[in-house]
Amino acid sequence: MKQAREFLVRQAAARGKYSHLYHHLSTTARRDWKASFGEIENILGFELPPSARLYRPWWANQTRGGGHSHALAWQAAGWKTRDVDLEAETLVFERTDTVSGRPAAATKEHLTLEAVAHGKYAPLYRHLLSFDAGSAWSTTFAEVEKILDFRLPASARIHRPWWANQRSGGHSHALAWKAAGWKTKQVDLEAETLVFERVKGDPASTSKATIKDTFDIDRDFPATDMGPWPEGFTAGREQIYDDVWPLSD
Question: HSE on the CB side for 67, CA within 13 Å?
Answer without folding.
Answer: 2
